[in-house]
Amino acid sequence: MRRTSTAIALLLVAMAAPAAASSFAGTSAGATSGGISASSGSTSGNDKVLLEARSDAASFVATEGRIRGVRLEAALRHLRGQSDAARDATDLALARSILAL
User: Fold this and answer.
1) Domain ranges of the chain
2) Bridge partners (DSSP) listed for residue 37
3) Fewest beta carbons within 10 Å, which of 23, 41, 50, 56?
4) What is the mean predicted confidence (pLDDT) over 43-48?
5) 7: Cβ contacts below 8 Å, ≥ 6 apart
6) DSSP characters over 45-63
7) Nearest to residue 100, comparing CAs of 53, 63, 66, 68?
8) What is the C-alpha separation between 73 and 49, in angstroms, rounded?
9) Which intervals of the chain are annotated as region Disordered (predicted)?
10) Of 70, 78, 76, 81, nearest to 92 (Cα)?
11) What is residue 9's three-state secondary structure?
12) Tens digits of per-residue pLDDT, 72-81?
């Protein structure tokens, strides 16, 4: 179980790295003179799904699985579609990994 959690955490970190890079590019290099980022939508859909699920994941973990938000459900489906390790992990383990992003 520990090995699966480590694999999931590494997968999530790898998936989130492009989001951090694109966010930096969107707020510094891509900023327009009006202060609005010209590339604010540059975060890929995959990264966005995981990042938007963080608050739902926090509620899920805090309530020991009693509160399941739609964003968390989308992130769980996404992760399980991308990784064999995620398919074998519990919802709680995946939610904790999302919070670690």
Assistant:
1) 2-29+45-99
2) 31
3) 41
4) 70
5) 83, 85
6) HHHHHHHHTHHHHHHHHHT
7) 53
8) 10
9) 25-45
10) 76
11) helix
12) 999 999 999 9
* Token pair in block for residue 82: 């991308």
Among all chains, which residue has been given the structure tokens 């989308």?
A: 74
Amino acid at 71: R
Q: How far is CA 55 from the centre of its chain?
A: 10
* Distance (Å, whole) CA 9 – CA 86: 10
62-101 residue pLDDT tens: 999 999 999 999 999 999 999 999 999 999 999 999 999 8
- Which bin fits 89, alpha (ψ -120 to 50), beta or left (φ > 0)? beta
